[in-house]
Amino acid sequence: MNNAFLDYSYQFNFPDKTSSELQLKIDLQTTTLQSNETTAPYWTALEFNQCPNCPLNKEQHANCPVAQNLIPLLNLSGTLISYEAVNVIIKTPERTISADTSIQRAISTLLGLIMATSPCPHTEFLKPMARFHLPLASEEETIYRTTSMYLLAQYFRSKAGFDYEIGFEGLTAVYSNLKIINRALASRFRAASEQDATVNAIILLDLLSQAVAWSIEDQLDELQPLFNRFMT
Question: CA–CA separation, 50 vs 53, rounded Å?
Answer without folding.
Answer: 8
